[in-house]
């Protein structure tokens, strides 16, 4: 098994004031060396919870079962001390909102140096030099001076880049990006994606990309896993997923997007709506969670839970009545 | 056109729950809050049912039974320096103490909230004027106001409430103003402005109801502050005048007897302490209840 | 030819930064002119700091413009006193971005949707109830929702309520400030379709403010692109998206992520380096020149004026575009 990360049959139960929430149900996922895997879904689908489970950052009362193997080591049973060593050095995470993940009271140089000291044992001048190197790696100009900036003095895009630099400080094997560009403007987003793509190629990073933005997925990912209501409903190479989405939810998401760049006069009359809401499951159901909203659902969908099955090589889908292959019109 | 189903319909469990229900469950999850509530309820009940609970008159002196200790015949908590039953005085004292605390706070809020709302909503000249007046009030030491009022109008219950109310004003105005300023920027208030709703209506229907929670919390903290303030006044002889018992003046008059007969100081002192603590715990509980981030 | 519903001329909006942050003057809107005809949807597109939301607020008179004119149905409303403005407000309504703060949490949906009616003279409870019912059904919700409170509704449902409130008086002009940005993809489609349908049946004019180009292309008849408080390009949807002339418009279109991995990979992406400068100290000349690949000497000293790009209303404010046009004209 030469996968860098292998998540098998992960189940996460969380507790809120109304009781138990089945946040993640039987999710299996893998990230290979140098591969970019996107975990896609809307809010409440469980994608962020999956990443937090992997990093053991869930609340103390969460119930997590399954296996998470990273570089051959089982993460879920690991004592916290060893987990902390892995977190931040072998696995690094960049969060969505850079303003709240950076400490406003310290300069970014300070924060990067702290990471280098902690995980790499670098001190003093060596740490500062390396910090400046990292900043230039993410294309921040005048890096030595920028080290002395406070987070509030930087723009959103720069802060996000600083976060990426911090994440890269200890040469992680796996980088988790949680909605890395959602809070950014379009032009800034393009820059960040450029940087990430470039870094991934140069450093051979493995990336787990968590996002709801299919545009970002199309830009960065090699493989895509689509999540709905806590379980994985489709898994395919990125080209195949966009050209031939098989799960009705995936197809629905793609059809709901206003597509840019159509020909003049080619009126896009309506966007595909998916009526209803993403459910929050509190008890196991013997049914497809998407069936109440699915235009293709039939009787069996409401009585049996579909499991992931191959519909093509390297393309699995959990659906009894998947879409026909190649159904999405090829783009211009 | 598709009709969107409301959560609650359909076979799969729904996501949204009404926020009104479950508040007791949330509140009762924190023992200190429940203790605080219990304490407040007890004190209020004692005050309300005082005539039924007290066996003796709180003001009639009985010189034959001066300074009898606790557990003496017929007097569980003993008697004070004029032979009056300590327990009965304590019970009746709760009436006065609460009356002063609650009325002073109500007075302060009744004046402060309209000022604060107007100040926070209109800003500009109105705000400047209100803030400068508040600053003037703040500049006067609370005691000076109390002493001044007592000197001019005599130390009556009204004046104590007035003085304590005035002392609370700046704090309450600030809170009301801060809430109004924050609410004003909320989209739903902006929406009401765009819709053309009259400003007075906006203040009454949008601002005030959404400020109730923080104001309630503020009140639950102001009342004990007023109680302590009245105790302070009693020490200066400006508080509730004897023979009417208040915990503050019971404490004050017990000063001379502290060495030999400490219980006449201990009991009212403990009563003040427990009541103040209960209100504060209740206030904390209420604040956590209303804080959306704790949901 | 009927008078345009909205005419904005040389709008300028200045703010004073709080004294604690320096007290400088910020020009959020520097010089904006636009018109919206009857039944027309004009998209106002820009990134953060472009001033688009401020323009919207000036149009609905949530702000009093520092300079310039706003004319609604021929009437100058720029400095009208509140009293006089009030009755006009029934005809200019707004939908807000954040579904979680745009509805009063203490009011029922019936009260929220009924408020505009009560504010403008409909006092009979029966009449209010009837109109509110109709408004709510028109946006795709069942009348049962009238008894609910906002906390019981999802984001998409709240936006529909906001829309019902805005349209219950059947206004001539609707200003929509990023109404779908805070919603999930599948929910967005529903709201956008709804808006398009309602606009088609009710024929109101709409100023649609957004940063999402795909959404603008889907919904709008005409589009204006803003950068740092000014409009840099304006034209019909086909003109702006099919034949973008201004370098900023081109950069925006190039940067917008496509939900198509094949096309995405072959695109020239990050065409515009850097970030938008602060509105406190805009660059001299053309405010885009520090980032513009086409910038020349003139761009850094002289502010460009709107150049007619083609017969009709397609305008772009760019020296290079102007030079190009002059060249085409002079070449026989």
Description:
The complex is a heterotrimer of chains A (332), B (295) and C (332). Chain A is an alpha/beta fold and 332 residues long. Chain A has a domain at 103-171. Chain A is 31% helix and 23% strand. Chain A has helices spanning 47-54, 80-86, 98-101, 108-120, 124-137, 143-146, 156-168, 186-203, 214-220, 238-243, 248-256; strands at 3-16, 19-32, 36-40, 63-70, 73-74, 91-94, 174-178, 206-211, 223-228, 231-237, 309-312, 315-317. An eight-stranded mixed beta sheet of chain A has the order 6-7-8-3-9-10-12-11, sandwiched between helices. The two termini of chain A are 40 Å apart. The relative contact order of chain A is 0.14. The mean pLDDT of chain A is 87. Chain B is mainly α. Chain B has one domain (29-52, 77-294): Orthogonal Bundle (MetI-like fold), CATH 1.10.3720. In chain B, 68% of the residues lie in helices and 0% in strands. Chain B has helices at residues 23-28, 31-48, 50-53, 86-122, 124-139, 142-153, 157-184, 187-195, 199-235, 247-253, 263-290. The radius of gyration of chain B is 24 Å and the shape is elongated. The two termini of chain B are 36 Å apart. In chain C, the strands form two sheets. In chain C, strands 6-7-8-3-9-10-12-11 form an eight-stranded mixed beta sheet, sandwiched between helices. Chain C starts with 5 loop residues before the first strand and ends with a helix. The model of chain C has no long low-confidence stretch (mean pLDDT 89). Chain C has a domain at 6-91 and 171-276: P-loop containing nucleotide triphosphate hydrolases (Rossmann fold). Helix content of chain C is 33%, strand content 21%. Chains in contact: A-B, A-C, B-C.
Question: What is the fold's blueprint, element by element?
Answer:
The complex is a heterotrimer of chains A (332), B (295) and C (332).
Chain A: E1 3-16, E2 19-32, E3 36-40, H1 47-54, E4 63-70, E5 73-74, H2 80-86, E6 91-94, H3 98-101, H4 108-120, H5 124-137, H6 143-146, H7 156-168, E7 174-178, H8 186-203, E8 206-211, H9 214-220, E9 223-228, E10 231-237, H10 238-243, H11 248-256, E11 309-312, E12 315-317
Parallel strand pairs in A: 3-8, 3-9, 6-7, 7-8
Antiparallel strand pairs in A: 1-2, 1-4, 4-5, 9-10, 10-12, 11-12
Helix pairs in contact in A: 4-5, 5-7, 7-8
Chain B: H1 23-28, H2 31-48, H3 50-53, H4 86-122, H5 124-139, H6 142-153, H7 157-184, H8 187-195, H9 199-235, H10 247-253, H11 263-290
Chain C: E1 6-16, E2 25-36, E3 41-45, H1 52-59, E4 67-72, E5 75-76, H2 82-89, E6 92-95, H3 109-119, H4 125-138, H5 155-167, E7 173-177, H6 185-202, E8 205-210, H7 213-219, E9 222-227, E10 230-236, H8 237-242, H9 247-255, H10 261-265, E11 306-308, E12 315-317, H11 319-330
Parallel strand pairs in C: 3-8, 3-9, 6-7, 7-8
Antiparallel strand pairs in C: 1-2, 1-4, 4-5, 9-10, 10-12, 11-12
Helix pairs in contact in C: 3-4, 3-5, 4-5, 5-6
């Amino acid at each position: 098994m030469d996968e860098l990360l292998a998540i098998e049959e992960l189940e996460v139960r969380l507790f809120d004031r109304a009781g138990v929430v089945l946040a993640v149900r039987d999710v299996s996922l893998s990230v290979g060396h140098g591969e970019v895997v996107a975990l896609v879904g809307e809010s409440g689908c469980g994608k962020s919870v999956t990443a937090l489970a992997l990093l053991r950052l869930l609340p103390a009362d969460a119930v997590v079962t399954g296996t998470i193997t990273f570089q051959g080591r089982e993460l879920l049973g690991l004592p916290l001390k060893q987990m902390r060593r892995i977190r931040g050095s072998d696995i690094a995470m960049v969060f969505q909102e850079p303003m709240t993940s950076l400490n406003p009271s310290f300069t970014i140089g300070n924060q990067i140096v702290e990471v280098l000291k902690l995980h790499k044992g670098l001190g003093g001048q060596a740490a500062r030099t390396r910090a400046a190197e990292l900043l230039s790696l993410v294309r921040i100009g005048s890096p030595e001076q920028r080290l002395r900036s406070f987070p509030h003095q930087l723009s959103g895009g720069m802060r996000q880049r600083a976060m990426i630099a911090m994440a890269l400080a200890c040469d992680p094997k796996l980088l988790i990006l949680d909605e890395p560009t959602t809070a950014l403007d379009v032009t800034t987003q393009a820059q960040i994606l450029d940087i990430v793509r470039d870094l991934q190629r140069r450093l051979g990073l493995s990336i787990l990309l968590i996002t709801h933005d299919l545009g970002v997925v199309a830009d960065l990912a090699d493989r895509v896993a689509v999540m709905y209501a806590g379980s994985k409903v489709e898994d395919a190479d990125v080209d195949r997923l966009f050209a031939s989405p098989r799960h009705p939810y995936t197809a629905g998401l793609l059809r709901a997007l206003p597509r840019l760049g159509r020909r003049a006069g080619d009126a896009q009359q309506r966007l595909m709506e998916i009526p209803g809401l993403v459910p929050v499951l509190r008890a196991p159901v013997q049914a497809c969670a998407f069936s109440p909203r699915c235009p293709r659902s039939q009787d069996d969908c409401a009585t049996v839970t579909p499991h992931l099955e191959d519909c093509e090589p390297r393309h699995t889908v959990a659906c009894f009545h998947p879409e026909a292959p190649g159904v999405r019109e090829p783009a211009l | 056109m598709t009709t969107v189903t409301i959560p609650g319909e359909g076979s799969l469990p729904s996501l949204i729950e009404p926020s009104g229900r479950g508040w007791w469950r949330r509140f009762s999850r924190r023992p200190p809050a429940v203790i605080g509530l219990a304490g407040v309820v007890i004190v209020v009940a004692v005050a309300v049912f005082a005539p039924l609970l007290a066996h003796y008159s709180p003001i009639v002196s009985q010189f034959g039974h001066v300074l009898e200790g606790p557990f003496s015949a017929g007097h569980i908590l003993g008697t004070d320096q004029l032979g009056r039953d300590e327990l009965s005085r304590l019970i009746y004292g709760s009436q006065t103490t609460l009356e002063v605390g609650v009325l002073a706070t109500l007075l302060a809020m009744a004046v402060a909230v309209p000022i604060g709302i107007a100040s926070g909503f209109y800003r500009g000249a109105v705000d400047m004027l209100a803030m400068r007046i508040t600053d003037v009030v703040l500049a006067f030491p609370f005691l000076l106001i109390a002493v001044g009022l007592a000197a001019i109008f005599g130390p009556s219950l009204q004046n104590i409430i007035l003085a304590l109310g005035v002392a609370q004003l700046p704090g309450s105005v600030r809170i009301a103003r801060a809430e109004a300023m924050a609410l004003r920027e909320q989209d739903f208030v902006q929406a009401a402005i765009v819709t053309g709703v009259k400003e007075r209506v906006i203040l009454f229907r949008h601002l005030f109801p959404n400020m109730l929670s923080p104001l309630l919390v503020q009140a639950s903290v102001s009342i004990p502050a007023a109680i302590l303030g009245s105790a302070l006044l009693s020490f200066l002889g400006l508080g509730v005048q004897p023979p009417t018992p208040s915990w503050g003046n019971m404490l004050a008059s017990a000063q001379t007897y502290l060495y030999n007969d400490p219980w006449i100081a201990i009991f009212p002192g403990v009563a003040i302490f427990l009541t103040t603590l209960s209100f504060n715990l209740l206030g904390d509980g209420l604040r956590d209840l209303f804080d959306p981030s704790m949901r | 030819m009927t008078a345009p519903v909205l005419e904005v001329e040389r709008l300028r909006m200045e703010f004073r930064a709080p004294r604690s942050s320096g007290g400088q003057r910020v020009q959020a809107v520097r010089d904006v002119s636009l018109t919206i005809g009857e039944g027309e949807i004009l998209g106002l597109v820009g990134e953060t700091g472009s001033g688009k939301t401020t323009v919207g607020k000036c149009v609905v008179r949530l702000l009093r413009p520092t300079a310039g004119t706003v004319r609604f149905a021929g009437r100058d409303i720029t400095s009208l006193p509140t009293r006089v403005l009030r009755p006009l407000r029934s005809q200019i309504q707004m939908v807000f971005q954040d579904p979680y703060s745009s509805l009063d949490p203490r009011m029922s949906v019936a009260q929220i949707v009924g408020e505009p009616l009560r504010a403008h003279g409909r006092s009979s409870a029966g009449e209010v109830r009837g109109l509110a019912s109709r408004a709510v059904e028109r946006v795709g919700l069942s009348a049962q929702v009238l008894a609910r409170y906002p906390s019981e509704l999802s984001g998409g449902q709240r936006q529909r309520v906001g829309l019902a409130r805005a349209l219950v008086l059947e206004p001539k002009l609707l200003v929509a400030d990023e109404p779908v940005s805070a919603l999930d993809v599948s929910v967005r489609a529903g709201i956008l379709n709804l808006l398009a349908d309602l606009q088609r049946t009710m024929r109101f004019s709409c100023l649609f403010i957004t940063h999402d180009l795909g959404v603008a292309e889907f919904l709008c008849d005409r589009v204006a692109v803003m950068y740092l408080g000014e409009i840099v390009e304006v034209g019909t949807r086909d003109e702006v998206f099919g034949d973008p002339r201004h370098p900023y418009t081109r950069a925006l279109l190039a940067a917008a992520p496509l939900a198509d991995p094949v096309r995405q990979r072959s695109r020239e992406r990050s065409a515009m380096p850097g970030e938008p400068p602060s509105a406190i100290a805009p660059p001299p000349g053309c405010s885009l020149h520090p980032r513009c690949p086409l910038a020349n000497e003139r761009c850094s000293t002289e502010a460009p004026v709107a150049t007619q790009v083609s017969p009709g209303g397609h305008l772009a404010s760019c020296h290079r575009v102007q030079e190009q046009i002059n060249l085409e004209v002079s070449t026989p």
